[in-house]
Design goal:
The chain is of the alpha+beta class. The chain has six helices and 17 strands. The strands form four sheets. Strands 5-4-3-2-1-17 form a six-stranded mixed β-sheet. The chain has a six-stranded mixed β-sheet with strand order 8-9-10-12-15-16, covered by helices on one side. α1 packs parallel to α2 and α3 packs parallel to α4. It is globular, with a radius of gyration of 18 Å. The mean pLDDT is about 95.
């Protein structure tokens, strides 16, 4: 399967962001992409750097005008499209939601981000209610997609549950970067940790994995921090964690990568992790902590 990944710098002009995204989707579709993955909260600047109730005005209805827009883009280009939107579910109830569109423009399904961070410059608990759909793959014409969002990518439990429910690929729209006060050495440790843990999910589950990150600097509107430099580095890993593609740390990139989806069977035969799991010994995994 040919997969298009779109790593962009995001401006405060939402209409222009959508126009540029649509243009890049068309570009990778022309190169043969059948599945296209966008980055987290791609329509707007990363507003979670500060807690401001006015930012709730950025949320959109699902379905609604914005999903109509991406529905038409998916249909025009004949691609399965993974988007990432700020969902207004009801007054005072919002989610960080990935919406997947079928190649005919219909909504194939959605996933609400389960793990919500609350750290300096990443004040997502102020905005997002944790997801209540669970770790359920989304069936599409290109396969069963195990779509999760950003902070979810640090948790092996989510990836495992998606794989156990038949996901054929793991997908993570992402917004992560450096805090300005971190040393270069610390920044690189963080970026490599982010990459390594996800490659581990690919290996442990014998599945290809797609992570698409933002890139570029976005200021902190409150002025409390030096803003975030999103580290890009979007990548696609194969079933053994090997890099099939890795983007620049600093530049925008729209790329098409071919992934051998059938290789999952080959890998799982030589590394039968699902056969050898000691499911009888994991009964305490649902506890917060064990002394």
């Amino acid at each position: 399967m040919k997969i298009g990944t779109i790593q962009l710098k995001i401006s405060e002009n939402i209409a222009d962001n959508r126009k540029r995204i649509a243009r890049e989707i068309a570009k990778v579709a022309e190169q043969g992409a059948k599945l296209v993955v966008l980055q987290e909260l791609h329509d707007t600047p990363y507003f979670c750097q500060t807690e401001d109730v006015k930012n709730f005005n950025l949320a959109v209805a699902i379905p609604g005008e914005v999903t109509d827009f991406y529905s038409s883009v998916a249909k025009e280009n004949g691609v399965v499209l993974v988007t990432s939107l700020f969902e207004r579910r009801a007054a005072g109830l919002y989610h960080n939601t990935a919406v997947v569109f079928e190649a005919d423009g219909s909504i194939a399904g959605k996933y609400r981000k389960m793990h919500i961070p609350d750290d300096p410059a990443y004040y997502e608990k102020f905005y997002f209610t944790p997801g209540d759909i669970g770790f359920e793959p989304i069936d599409t014409s290109v396969g069963r997609l195990g779509v999760m969002v950003c902070w979810d990518q640090w948790y092996p439990e989510g990836a495992r549950l998606m794989a156990m429910r038949g996901a054929e690929i793991l997908i993570y729209p992402t917004a992560i970067g450096y805090e300005s006060s971190d040393t270069q050495e610390e920044q690189e440790r963080q970026r490599e940790a982010w990459t390594t843990v996800q490659r581990g999910h690919a290996v442990a589950n014998g599945l290809p994995l797609v992570a698409v990150n933002r890139v570029g600097y976005e200021k902190d509107p409150s002025g409390q921090t030096g803003g975030i430099t999103f580290w890009g580095s979007s990548f696609i890993a194969g079933q053994q964690g090997e890099f099939l593609y890795r983007a620049s740390k600093t530049e925008e990139e729209s790329t098409v990568t071919e992934v051998d989806m059938q290789h999952t069977d080959d890998v799982r035969r030589i590394w039968p992790f699902f056969r050898d799991r000691r499911i009888d010994a994991y009964t305490e995994i649902d506890k917060r902590f064990l002394k």
